[in-house]
Amino acid sequence: MSPFKGQTGLKRILNAASYSLDGLRAAFLGEAAFRQLVLLNLVLIPSAFVLDVSRGERALMVAVCLLALIVELLNSAIEAAIDRISLERHPLSKNAKDMGSAAQFVALGMIASVWAVILLG
């Protein structure tokens, strides 16, 4: 059993929220790609509420934007873990980082395609 898993109840929830905020802060301060996605979301999400689309379409437009942020957080976590293990170049480390990058590429493509399908009909 992990010594970090000892808390239960409200204390665990408060700790988890604090760790999550720490992660968001670390991503925002340390990852340019995350800051760029936040900026993109600050433009796209309010735009989704101005456009004449159905509630379902609006929800989908917002969801794909938020999904890209989630993917970037996971990609950054993978990169940090790989770098923590070793800064030495290794084919498996490259694969892990490239796959995280590919996941983000797919997420960005999903934003473009969902928005295009909805807006262009």
Automatic annotation (TrEMBL):
The protein's name: Diacylglycerol kinase
Positions contributing to ATP binding: R12, Y19, E31, E79, E88, R89, H90, K97, D98
Nucleotide-binding found in the keyword field: yes
Aminoacyl-tRNA synthetase in keyword set: no
Catalyzed chemical reaction(s): a 1,2-diacyl-sn-glycerol + ATP = a 1,2-diacyl-sn-glycero-3-phosphate + ADP + H(+)
One GO cellular component, as annotated: plasma membrane
Entry's cofactor comment: Mn(2+), Zn(2+), Cd(2+) and Co(2+) support activity to lesser extents.
A GO BP entry: phosphatidic acid biosynthetic process
